Amino acid sequence: MKSLLAALDSSDVETEPFPHIVARDVLAREDLQRLIDEFPQLETFPGYTREGNVRLTFPMARALESADVTQFWKEFLVANANREQLVHFARIFGEHFKSYHPRAADLINKADSLKVGLKHRDSFDDHSLLVSAAIDVNTPNQGDATSVRGPHVDSTRKAWFALFYLRDEDESEGGDLGLYRLREGQTLAGNIFNGSHLREEAVECVKTVQYEANTLFIGVNGPHSIHGVSPRHATPHPRKFATFNCDLPERLF
Fold it and tell me: What is the pTM of this model?
C-alpha cells in the first residue's frame, strides 16, 4: 500500500500561516471505501464513552495488537508511520523545517540511517526518532454546537502533524480544521491556557480545511502552527479520521 505522502513534493507546500499541504483524493477510491467500511466500532476504542463530541484514539501500537482492528487498517497505519515516511517528509518539507528548527532538521535528514521506533511501544533510550499513527474519532455531538478542540499548538516534541479524513456521511455540519495566526500585537506569551490552547480573541482563522473524505492535511509543527476544529452541530454521526506524526527526543520550541 502506498503512503499518503507518496505523490507529494515540495511544490505542493503552502507557507501561510505556516508550512503545510492540503491534498485531496489521495487514496484510490476502493482503498478509501475499505477503510471506511472497516473503521472500528466506537465501542472498541480505548476509553470509550457515550459523552458527546469527545475525541477517542486508537494508537497504532495498540491497534496492531487488537483483534478489533482489521488487517487492512493495520497495513494502512504501518504504511504511513515508518522510516520511509520520515524520508518523504524531509524531501517535501526539508527547507521549511530547517528554517523553523535548524538543529532538529539535521536529525530528520539522517532518518534513513537512524534507528526509528514506534511511539507507545519503543522509547528514546535506544531509538533516535519515534513515529506514530492512530485511528481517531470524535463521538457524535448530542447538544449545542461545540468544538472538540479550539485554537492550540501541538506537543513541543512533535515534528509535524497530519490528519486524513474518512467522512462517510453528508449531514453533519462543522468539524472543519481551522488554521490560525496571532492577531497584530498579540504574542503566545500571555495568551496560552491549559497548556497549549490559545485565547480566541488573540488569534484569527486564515484558512479552513473542510472535513471531507479522502482529504489529507500535513503541517510543520512549531510555536506558530496554530490550529483547531470548528464547532460541530448536533449530529448522530461520529467524525472519523486518522493521524500521523513523529516525536523527537528533545523539545523543538
Answer: 0.96
